[in-house]
Amino acid sequence: MGLVFIIFLALLLLGMPAAFAIGVSGAIFFITTPDLPLAIMVQKALAPTQSFNMLAVPLFVFAGNLMNNTGITTRLIKLANILTGRMYGNLAQTSCMLSVLMGGVSGSANADAAMASRIFAPAMKEKGYSMSYGAAVNGYTSLIVATIPPSMGLIIYGSVGEVSIGRLFIAGFVPAALLAIAFMFTIRQTAKKRGYLPERTTAVPPHEVGKALLDSVWALLFPVILIVGIRFGIFTPSESGAFACVYAIFVGAVIYKELSLKKFKETLKNTAGDIGVIMMLVALSGIFGYGIVYDRVPQALAAFLMGITANKFLLLGIIILMLVLVGTCIETTVIALLMTPILLPVVTSVGVDPVQFGLIMMTVVTMGIMTPPMGIALFTTSSLMGCKPEQTAKDSIPFLIATLLVVAICVFFEDLVLFLPNLVFG
After folding, report:
1. Based on C-alpha coordinates, what's the Rg of the chain?
2. 10 Å Cβ neighbour count for 195?
3. Which of 96, 207, 286, 382 has its CA at 20 to 30 Å from residue 367's CA atom?
4. Which band of pLDDT confidence, cut at 50, 70 and 90, is reported for residue 171?
5. Which of 397, 398, 328 is nearest to 366 (CA)?
6. How far is CA 38 from CA 34, 206, 287, in A?
């Protein structure tokens, strides 16, 4: 399996798309292993796509695209601006608040970072913001999406690792809140130093806040309805994805009346492309994942790490460092698909809760979208904001530190992370 990993990394470095790199290296494993019939390779490619839990991924992608075309985003931006107008760097604060509000809508950190950059680039340029600073803010605040339901990463982690998606969803609110607080404090300090003054000095009248909240209530209710529905057995996580699609169509067509037939067709087209990319990754990772299990990689890694230390905090520290390094060059979805079956048995063997580890893992690997040399969001936000990725990476350092502090809290305060799922699910 070591040769297969080397081939996989080599193909990535040569610029091959991640899905094909996984598929080719997985096929090589089967070809070079005499005892394995090639028919199993086909079966293992199809098996992950037949998972009932994995059905939630395309459904939530469709629901998120629907909501982005129904006027919900515009209303959330207005609400975020009202709530942050008196803060230093209010445009950057609005971007952070929008990630909090959009977490339950988009489910994708990459999509959130790109959307925020498109929305805020003109206003930030007009107000004199450094474009690289704006790119750093838009990229890092999108990490909040990684833990707010319905996070695509948590769905994949829960499906592959057989961890309760309902518990992951409800547990995600605490890390998301910690990230939001850490980022907003970081923005305040850095914006004050840079001279990015608040947009206004007086409070917004209560009736304006109330109106903005009322306009955004359908989006704000979305994650709440999902959690309540899953908790009381109204629907499973996969069925909640189907509900989310119906909910989005209802809000767009009946409440806001902004979902036209033309927009609906465009949404279907965009969703088909998004789902195609994701499910190809899921299918081909089944081949690679079988090789990992067949060669007993989890057991070998567990024995190696346990030989270094049996202390769960030191072990988590080593794994986090490894995930940071891996996250700089491999896409988040790929890491969740390939590393979950390897690392989950290791951490549970030393007493780490699977839900706690899932939130730590997804926060760390999602951070990889903003870290060089191959961070997807680093290049996306820099391109959309019209600045150099190297400068964006430099301006990202305070936000990197803030993220690592939140990860440290999640590592050392297990009860804090598990408080909500234990309260709701027992």
Report:
1. 21
2. 9
3. 286
4. very high
5. 328
6. 10, 66, 11
Alpha helix positions (H), 232-353:
237-250, 261-294, 297-308, 312-327, 332-348
User: Averaged over 176-190, what is the pLDDT?
Assistant: 94
Sequence-separated (6 or more) residues with CB below 8 Å from residue 182: 402, 403, 405, 406
Provide, rounded to the nearest whole percent, the portion of the chain with pLDDT above 90.
22
Nearest by Cα to 61 from 255, 242, 262: 242
H-only helix segments in 69-164: 72-84, 90-106, 109-126, 131-141, 152-161
Using CA atoms, how far residue 65 sits from 12, 23, 148, in Å, is 29, 28, 17
- Give pTM, 2 decimals: 0.80
pLDDT at 177: 93
CB half-sphere exposure, 340, CA atoms < 13 A:
26
Question: Rounded CA gap, 364 and 325, in Å?
Answer: 10
CA 107/CA 274 separation, integer angstroms: 13
The DSSP call for residue 254 is: I
Which residues are CB-contacts of 307 (< 8 A; sequence separation ≥ 6)?
A: none
- Asked if residue 234 has pLDDT above 60, the reply is yes
Amino acid code (one letter) for 158 = G
Given pLDDT bands bounded at 50, 70 and 90, which one contains residue 1? Answer: low
CA distance 409 to 247: 35
* Sign of the alpha-carbon torsion through 413, 414, 415, 418: positive
**pLDDT of 73 strictly over 90:** no
Q: Give CA torsion, residues 311, 317, 322, 325, to 10 deg.
A: -170
Helix (H, G, I), strand (E, B) or coil at 387: coil
Contact 187, 137 (CB under 8 A): yes
